[in-house]
Amino acid sequence: MSIHLRKHSMRFRYIPIIAFVLSSTLAVVACGSEGGGQGTVTTDGALTISAPTDPGNLFPPKTLNATARQLAVFGYESLVSFGDDGKLAPWLAQSWDSSATEVVFKLRDGVTCSDGSTLSAQMVADNYTWITDPANSSAIRGVFVPPDLTATADSAANTVTLKTAMPNPFLTEMVGQVLIVCSSGLSHPDEYSNRFDGTGLYTLTDASPGESYTLTRRSDYTWGPGGTTSDTPGLPMTVTVNVITNNVTRANLLLSGETNLATVTMPDSERLETAGMPGISASMLSAELFFNHDDAHVTADPAVRMALVRSTNTEEIADILTGGNGSPAQSFQSGLPKTCALEDLNSSVPSFDEQDASRILDAAGWIMGPDGLRSKNGRKLTVNILHLQGSERVAAFEYLASQWKKLGVDVVIQTADSPVIQSILFSGNSGNWDVVDLAIGGVSFPSMMVPFFSGAGPQNFAKIKNPAFDLNVAVAMNTLGLEGCPQWQEAERAIVANADVLPIGWSSTVAYTDGFTARQVIPIEPWSIRTTE
């Protein structure tokens, strides 16, 4: 649908982009939390999930969208999983031998794709080869999979060997979480944007983008964690995922018993709490502001970036975004386990000081004009903000724009949904934006943040170049395990101290559940679902 926006008397403007959903994060690794539900386990039941955004492309190597990856895990699986203790556990791989530069996975026998074909070592190796091929523009290249990684299959031994030249202390954890696509999907990826071709417990039997998705349980599944098979009591026969973008509507559906799982934020979550609805809370960044470092943009000027950060009251904006329930940003990491995570990232953010922000721009030659706007060498200080949709976000960015206007900045605001923003950011072009609202959600291992903050890959859409970050990462990548935590933490601090990225604050998202149990619900793990009555 199109967005209708009112005019503003202040000097900032909205340019609508066609969009229809709100999603505030990219998903890298998921947050973990136990599911809720009471009662007797049912047979061949049905589960309904209310998603806050349409997933967009469902082909796993092409997306980092949180909703897309949640839906994809019903049809696709990874080589390893994580046990209740946070340690790696077998899945499609029954065992592995690893170092910081090489992993050899021994695959489980008897695994089949949804089309009946047998999962082979060559098929698995082909996934990694496809992902690392720059021509395929995989969204997870450099995130889950090092760009230089090579994959070799040994069909006789049923093993796959993955090698990389640069040491990575979390190599097994990263590559082991890649969702494996079967042969047809890899050969024809464009045909599987709304279809499944994996080894997962469910097939996608109906897809109506923007409305709903229907999943149906396979009858021949025997290799799930904990001995889960198609015949395990309590597994729903069908799962329906409805796209419900309105927070109030999601709350109402939970109260009326018309949905089993939905995330709801304040103030509507108060109604659910009062009704005694069980919920699981997870904390994550409410927003991150990425500044475009491309030379064509005013935000390439370090003085402009620092002045914008110094004139941003992150505490007030976080409260607007969360209905008064914001808290200081602890870390860029919000997934579990939080390996080497900081607890006070906000302490490294340049402090809020409007007078100092003005002095920074004065010193850099951005002169205030009689119209209340600054310019330098004939160039007006105009900042284009691209932010996600949602009433709270509109209010928050209107407030942010009013702060920056007092500094002498002309602000243009554009709104879009998450898939549109991601298509803009990951297109490889600098784009018509200077500041973008995006949170990279669920990062569990610090090495997975690296491509978003450095390098020439498409994930570094802001074109950040931070020598202090790069130096600390180089040391940490050559250090075993947790011994590199001090360097990983210094790297994280360097990004915010240099005003490359501004974490606004943390928010608490609650996933409310009714009529089922699961090991965790953020995200839900299909093999662990048990419907109840």
How would you describe this structure to a colleague?
The chain is α/β, with parallel strands linked by helices and 533 residues long. The chain has three domains: 12-24 and 283-509, Dipeptide-binding Protein, domain 3, CATH 3.10.105.10; 30-75 and 197-280 and 511-531, 3-Layer(aba) Sandwich (D-Maltodextrin-Binding Protein, domain 2); 80-185, Dipeptide-binding Protein, domain 1, CATH 3.90.76. The chain has helices at residues 66-72, 121-132, 171-175, 183-187, 247-255, 269-274, 302-310, 314-322, 354-363, 391-406, 418-425, 450-453, 467-477, 485-497; strands spanning 12-16, 25-27, 46-51, 80-82, 88-90, 93-98, 102-107, 150-154, 159-163, 202-208, 212-217, 238-243, 261-264, 279-291, 367-368, 374-376, 379-380, 382-388, 410-416, 435-437, 439-441, 501-513, 516-517, 530-531. α7 (302-310) runs antiparallel to α9, α8 runs antiparallel to α10 and α13 runs antiparallel to α14. The protein is globular, with a radius of gyration of 23 Å. Mean pLDDT is 87; it is low at 1-34.
